[in-house]
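Researcher: Can you fold this with iron/sulfur cluster in place?
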Amino acid sequence: MSANDTEKLAHMANQIAAFFAVYGEEEAAAGVAEHINRFWSRPMRAAFVAAGGEQTDLAPAAARALANIKT
Amino acid sequence: MLIEEADFGTPIRVSETRVTLHIDGESVSVPAGTSVMAAAMQLGTKIPKLCATDSLEPFGSCRLCLIEIEGRRGTPASCTTLAEAGMVVRTQTDRLAKLRKGVMELYISDHPLDCLTCAANGDCELQDMAGAVGLRQVRYETGDNHFDAAHATPKDRSNPYFDYDPSKCIVCNRCVRACEEVQGTFALTITAKGFDSRVSAGGTDFLSSECVSCGACVQACPTATLIEKSVVAHGQPDHSKVTTCAYCGVGCSFKAEMQGDRLVRMLPLKAGKANEGHSCVKGRFAWGYATHKDRIVKPMIRSKTTDPWREVSWGEAIAYAAAEFKRIQAAYGRDSVGAITSSRCTNEEVFLVQKLVRAAFGNNNVDTCARVCHSPTGYGLSKTFGTSAGTQDFKSVEQADVIIVIGANPTDGHPVFASRLKKRLRQGARLIVADPRAIDLVKTPHVRASHHLQLKPGTNVALVNALAHVIVTEGLVDEAFVRQRCDLREFEVWARFIADERHSPEASEVHTGVPAAEVRAAARLFATGGNGAIYYGLGVTEHSQGSTMVMGLANLAMATGNVGRPGVGVNPLRGQNNVQGSCDMGSFPHEFSGYRHVSDDATRNMFETLWGVDLSPEQGLRIPNMLDAAVGGAFKGLYVQGEDIAQSDPDTIHVTAGLAAMECVVIQDLFLNETAKYAHVFLPGASFLEKDGTFTNAERRINRVRQVMSPLAGKQEWAVTQELANALGYAMSYADPAEIMDEIAALTPTFAGVSYAKLDERGSIQWPCNDKAPNGTPTMHVDRFVRGLGKFMLTEYQPTDERANVRFPLILTTGRILSQYNVGAQTRRTENTVWHPEDVLEIHPFDAELRGIRTGDLVAVASRKGEVSLKAEVSERMQPGVVYTTFHHALSGVNVVTTENSDWATNCPEYKVTAVEVRPTNHLGRWQERFQLEDALRKRVVEAAE
Ligand code: SF4
Ligand code: SF4
Ligand code: SF4
Ligand code: FES
């Protein structure tokens, strides 16, 4: 995956986090993880998780979700 | 055999009360409100008539339908006389016969007697009536008349599909009433009085008039006055079959009337539940594409997309495609290939393609074009209600009192539903339109929206939250409904959320631009005006918050108790004919048919057992993910069924880069479309006239598609998919589409009771159809939601990333128009182009003046993604700051300009919001210039050697 792709994935994760943000961070993190586990393909999840630490502009709920994303 | 539907003369009434009367000595019982004419028809007695037909209210002008009633004086008209209990009626007496002959004599004395050469010969009610009343002579001298050389008005042949010959008009007024009552356009009038009276399309010819060419008047006309050009050219059809329109999600039923293998006419079916005998210009007339010379009828292959196409045998094409997919999977892995199913194809075809992907490719990389239109509907309605479908049938609108139309333009996009909607509005239902443009519904003859919430594109969620805020804070919630039917805890959380001041109409006004008072009034009306129904389209879904908005609408419906009975509901108007069906059939990469996740072991095991193969529990790639992966080098092979992603999907340059990076693209289509320019294998498709199957419309109605002519390329599409699966090493052996439907029913609980036999028997079925609902389900969520309790979701408004700025100060939003359909592949190959020869950019006078733009000027539309040139049309329908165009023509390249932004939940593209600048120009955009250069080059075909 190129930098371009991981940026795109981070952006998508942030969009999901933005929807769930209103539920409070804990529920939001769970919501983001569940959504990504349900709808993203395995390579997308793997790339997102692999880039995990480096993605500085990740929304808090998306960052917290990383640990619960199945790869 | 030609299918004839009985004409009862006046509309069939519905009433609990029945009345029994006696007609010509026989007794008959009918619903109260039924005319004597319709009652007689129930006994099979056809009372002569000319001005009456059962699609229209009785008019009582021709005086041919006279009857005698015991105990009453005179000879009343049976079409305008209501049946009463105990009435004794005689339809045939010497007195009546004489009167009728007299009436007919008068008509015929002013009618050209050229029956033998008349196009309506054999299908003319005037002719029939002359026969029925036994007319043998006309005693009047030919004096002043409307037909001889001295008197006749010239024919109006301006409409591309039908002619108007005033000399044959009997001024029965059926056409005028059809245009008013059935279509709701009010394009026709009867001018003048007495002898001079004639039908007029508003004082001009039909083409220049308000007429939208729906064909209702032509169908209603009892004579040859209004007649299809195809009938004039070919004569009367001799056999017909009932089938379903292949254009929009209304799913109108038609009789395809044939002469041998030639389609002569498409006539809307009165028994069709979606359309009840009505049609629009597309389904009724725009079918010429099916036999257009551009149809590709031979399979073709090429190893490089810069090579010309080479025609080959079916066997060679399929073997080549299969070998390529196998090679690619061996080289790049099992997940390097996938497929896109089409919402224009039948359920059976779609089901087979997704089966091929899951069983023969061994992955779940299948997606559908619904990704780019209604995927948020699936997500949003599943979350809140528990299933991905509209809640009502179309008939429900007849009981709606307040109707919200949001992000939909039914008079253009879903014309026959629009006619049904307008009829209800003319009866007094109230209308709230939420749309950035003043769509036709806002003000159309005898219909005026109570509120037009003219919001800025991209602010739907702010608007729906503001509506809900008013309902919650002003105590307008239907508490009984919420308590009984919804998850109370979720409701309470939601109510607190929505009551916050930030959602008030006053606070939202800065985002939406809609005056707070207008929003408050609309919310009050919706909550208190009786049955509230919501209809929405792609203006809701095609946003970065598309799924959020669908949930917002579901919240609104639940809060006001508007779910679970006729007259209410949340109703997605689906774009293409089989959007609902393609989603139902398991076209999404994460779901099997019936919306069950691929990771669900029980469901997967069921499929594995029946299909005899291990299936992947991992969801596959969606269309945008496939394209990203292709650009990234991991995705190499694609099978595209009846779709044109190179034209229809956003950010064209990215789409074509993805396609160009693939090693094998297989296209199954009627035409060499834009995507085919990047393809290596072309498998000719079959038009809807050439195949058997089913489409499922926006009301979940499964309608039959029936083959009326042999496939031009020799094969129906499902058979080709089957051959491809076999060549890939996965055995399929269906004998016909009915067997595919049997498998769908066996694997899909909501389809369990569906079979071709049942569809033939009932005409159509709305799913769920199973043991609990053996005849289908017109209204969903009646006593409980599919998910149990309805779930309120929190819908925070998030402005889209795509904002107007100094460089791109205008917002471009896209849509479509009545006469064209989607990428135009079909409609551009019909006479419909007279109404829409090219895509134009609508711009508000203020923005136009600021830029020195006049109607007709060529303007460049530039976004951060790309630039194209279009002609401008200065239009008051727009609001300042917003421009609008359609995407029906490939050369327009509108999707060169649209962005990669998409819905957070489903990746449905944000077609409706693109920041652009518009300026006058004198040349096409760079992409368009290249398009012109490459168009012919990439479509070259070399003839196969004999
Ligand atoms: S074709 Fe339709 S719109 Fe046109 S005049 Fe006839 S009924 Fe009216
Ligand atoms: S055009 Fe046909 S339907 Fe209309 S008034 Fe004349 S005869 Fe009747
Ligand atoms: S409304 Fe839709 S389904 Fe009906 S005829 Fe028109 S295009 Fe076809
Ligand atoms: S049919 Fe009854 S008056 Fe014409």
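Model: Folded with iron/sulfur cluster in place. Residues 386 and 787 of chain B are 4 Å apart (CA to CA).
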